[in-house]
From TrEMBL:
The lineage of its organism: Bacteria, Pseudomonadati, Pseudomonadota, Gammaproteobacteria, Chromatiales. This is Leucine-responsive regulatory protein. Keywords: DNA-binding, Transcription, Transcription regulation. It holds the Pfam family HTH_24. The gene is lrp. GO terms for biological process: regulation of DNA-templated transcription; response to amino acid. Residues 3-64 form the HTH asnC-type domain. GO terms for cellular component: cytosol. It comes from the Bacteria. The keyword DNA-binding applies.
Amino acid sequence: MNLDRYDRHILDELQRDGRISNQDLAERIGLSPSPCLRRVRALEESGIITGYRAQLDAGKLDLNLMALIHIAMDRHTPERFENFEHKIKNLPEVLECLLITGQDADYQVKVVVRDMEAYQALLLNKITRIEGVTGVHSSFVMRKVVDKRALPV
């Protein structure tokens, strides 16, 4: 799909406020409501817009500890990685899991938990018990400096 300036503006506005009304969106981008709605639907149908979500405040949910975990695997086989990825996807504390290069680790996993005790339980009772995990290095987030979710369009 070729994106013109209106499509890019729509994407930018929806990333800022996914609950904006079509009327307000149309006014902000300089289109009438009908063509604006058609463009939004086309962006959804093309798969560029994958969904809409509520952003939550972790602190108000008593999730005060965020950690980045570098995980090394014993073997680099598709089966080993598939098993790890299947298990890690099912842990609710996991916010993000990236297969990485250039480190002494195979994965970087971002988790959020209540406190250090909850982190220890997650690490020792769940993550290190996944078959193939041989090394774990944890870094704890002291504060977020940049916390963007919007993609540059």
